[in-house]
Amino acid sequence: MGFDVSPVAIELGKLFKEKGYELALVGGPVRDLLLHRKSHDLDFCTSARPEEFEPILRRFGNGGFWDMGRKFGTLGAVRRLPDGTEVSVEVTTYRSDTYNPDSRKPEVNYGDSLEGDLSRRDFTVNAMALRVPDLEFVDPFGGADDLHKGVLRTPVSPEQSFDDDPLRMMRAVRFVAQLGFTIEPDTAEAIERMADRIRIVSAERVRDELTKLLLADDPRSGLEALVDSGLADIVLPELPALHLEIDEHHRHKDVFGHTMMVLERAMALETDADGPVPAPDLELRLAAIMHDVGKPKTRRFEAGGKVSFYQHDLVGARMTRKRLKALRFDHHIVEDVSDLVAMHLRFHGYVDERWTDAAVRRYVKDAGHLYDRLNRLTRADATTANKNKERMFSAAMDDLEARVIELKKQEDFDAIRPDLNGGQIMQILGIEPGPLVGKAYKHMLDYRLDNGPVDEATAREELLRWWNEEGGAAGAGTSAEAEASAD
User: Fold this and answer.
1) HD/PDEase domain: from which residue to which, for each copy (predicted)?
2) Residue 87, helix vs strand vs coil
């Protein structure tokens, strides 16, 4: 079989061969060659130890060199080509990764053969290699056949493979999403039996696999595999909890099925690179799968067979924040996704009663930089089978977005501030910096959003009215102006 191999791989292979070392392209790049896909990064394994091949890689990497993976036997470099493009390469000594029962990190044991190295890889479709520069194809476990069938199978027994590295169970469901493969029955059964072992893997590594799954072309299939395998019970228990039983009158939907539909609808609303929500958007997809996680905790059966989920948006936001923190997501992602969950019902009142301009300004101001994502999440969440309701909802959202465009022509929403600043508030009320200033500032911002800009005298009058109504003058030193107003 012929291979359209990157000249970079051939060149590096020749350098290793000159020094008497074996070098083979392995893993994803070989799989991609068989699938006729391009790989921007090239992974290799070699018979040489890191200290032996480091000089080769340093000379080869005219665009940079790194050794963060040295303790795992891995060094990397960037090769800058004449046309200005760059290719990243990573080279790893033949090895096997194993875990002690209570360890979160793999122990590295160097091997002495390519076949031995391939036997310790996650799945047969990733246990193929291409020796370079001679282009000898090595496939001891039938990976090419499994690739053709679209099957995920471990090179050795799945029990041994998942015991060596439990994260491979997460990679299995990730490949379902990325490659559209199915998990071979014995492998799937082993994942179900051993799912609890994922607990020894660090949250960061689990998070990275979940992120790759969500950013894949078909995250729904991957998430369904995550739930079916039992892995979600440990790494994302809020998801399987959405499998609420449907009441006998079918008055509410299966929340898990609805959530998967919302995810797909949200993905369809992502934009190209020049749009406000370029695909694939991690925050939008996370918000889609988490937006209803508060429903199981808030479900109530009301009179007449009705079912309510009062405040599931706020409860869900707290649950989302807790889960994403546990998975070690970056702070801005935790806050953004939690805010999207908290706000995902905000628009619904607009359908019944068209908002005032003040309410529209408040909605946009509260959404802030999440405005475009929030609208897409809201649209995706409208999964009613009632075509008339669907048209009404879509028309209302179109109307809101058109009004926002017109209002923004009149005023920069991002620049909206109260008509009185913090210094003026403290002077008028005669108070020192502290929580009271923040509370007063928020009130004046709300007043500004509701009423538009007013002159300073009107703003002062409103501040003093609010201050006296709050009883603030009784608990703090007040200015003469405030005391006079109180009299």
Assistant:
1) 251-353
2) strand
Domain that holds residue 117: 1-141
| Number of domains comprising the chain | 3
Task: Assign residue 127 a region (left: φ > 0; alpha: ψ between -120 and 50; beta: otherwise).
Answer: alpha
Q: Are 409 and 433 contained in the same domain? A: no
- Residue 425 and residue 332 share a domain: no
Centre a 10 Å sphere on the Cβ of residue 4 and count the other Cβ atoms it contains: 7
Indicate if 375 and 432 belong to the same structural domain: no
The predicted pLDDT at position 486 comes to 43
Query: Looking at the structure, do residues 107 and 2 belong to the same domain, yes or no?
Result: yes
Flag whether 443 is in a domain. yes
Q: CA 458, CA 326: separation in Å to the nearest integer?
A: 48
* 394 and 450 both lie in a single domain: no
CB burial class (10 A; 0-12, 13-18, 19+) of residue 409? Answer: exposed
Quote the pLDDT of residue 39.
Answer: 79
Q: Which of 120, 141, 162 is the last residue of a domain?
A: 141
pLDDT of 462 strictly over 60: yes
Tens digit of each residue's pLDDT (9 = 90 or more) over 432-444: 898 889 899 989 8
Q: How confident is the model at residue 45 (pLDDT cuts 50, 70, 90)?
A: very high
Half-sphere exposure of 179 (CA within 13 A, CB side): 25
203 lies in some domain: no
428 in the same domain as 348: no
- The pTM (predicted TM-score) of the whole model is 0.83
Q: What is the DSSP letter of 238?
A: T
- Write the pLDDT tens digit of every residue in 365-409: 899 999 999 999 999 999 888 888 889 999 999 999 999 999 888
Helices (H), 329-386: 331-343, 348-352, 357-367, 371-381
Task: Provide mean pLDDT across the span 256-273.
Answer: 97
Q: Considering only CA atoms, which of 359, 348, 444 is closest in space to residue 393?
A: 348
CA distance 231 to 173: 9
Does residue 484 surpass a pLDDT of 70? no
* 132 and 28 belong to one structural domain: yes
Element (H, E) at 394: helix 387-410
Same domain, 460 and 384: no
Residue 259: inside a domain, yes or no? Answer: no
Instruction: State how far the alpha carbon of 161 is from the alpha carbons of 65, 122, 146, 165, 324, in Å.
Output: 31, 7, 17, 6, 28
pLDDT of residue 2: 64
What's the pLDDT at 98?
A: 55
What's residue 465's pLDDT? 92
Q: Distance between CA atoms of 403 and 413, rounded to whole angstroms? A: 13
User: How many whole angstroms separate alpha carbon 117 and alpha carbon 24?
Assistant: 11
pLDDT value of residue 449: 82
